[in-house]
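ok so for the tutorial part 2 we go from a plain amino acid sequence to predicted structure tokens. step 1 is just haveing the sequence, like this:
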Amino acid sequence: MTVKQKYENLKSKPEISRDDVLSFFPEFLASLEKGSVTVVENNNGEWVVNTWVKEAILLGFRFGNLSEIDIGGWKFFDKDTLSFRNLSVDEKVRLVPGGSIIRSGAFVAQGTIIMPPVYINIGAYVDEGSMIDSHALVGSCARIGKNVHLSAASQIGGVLEPIGAMPVIIEDNVFIGGNCGIYEGAIVKKNAVIGTGVILNASTPVFDNVNGGYIRKEAGKTLIIPENAVVVAGSRPIRSGKGADEGVHLYCPVIIKYRDDKTGKSITLEDLLR
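step 2 — the prediction. this is what the tokens look like for a chain of 274 residues:
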């Protein structure tokens, strides 16, 4: 019986008990940590949310009791259904000393480098060969693709609720500069470059300076940054109201170009680091 089938059996009970959850939850967390169960999956080029996975994660919060967790003499207090991941050297993840935490239920693939301090939350998925630099956050259920560079102090927002909400997805070979923030289920497609300090969320209009016009989220969807786009911070003038008279501008990221050989050479990840 699969983990999903076990969850469906659990959910079908007239009343779920704490004992029911405690018998199911460790196997469920282990499946998340192995990557055999994921919050989102790609279906013919479209990202789809597995809502049952989010529901199952929330069971751990609902039925967990607050307890003390000891990590190397440091005391923390969290639900007893949740904890932190105990990696082994066989998993081939470089977790550099200095205060990083990978929460239970997060998948981190081999070849990943984690520089301290970093926090990777439950349900997150970090694929092979990525670099997660200092003071970066990978939020709950966020998806990080292969060979992604997440620079220092960048924030990848998480989302557990609402159940059907898309988490932030960073596809393969994306470079995210320092102090960036990607939130509200924004999707950054393959090979894109997000320049230092760029903030993206579902309602952020992005001006495409190459093709003209604004990229905005479609109804019922989220903001999607195209493949190979190089995005930098910019602004746009207010067109009406008193702000227009005063020359006030609003924040607006700009696609300044699409990735070329010159861009690739400046952001290439070094195999020697791995």
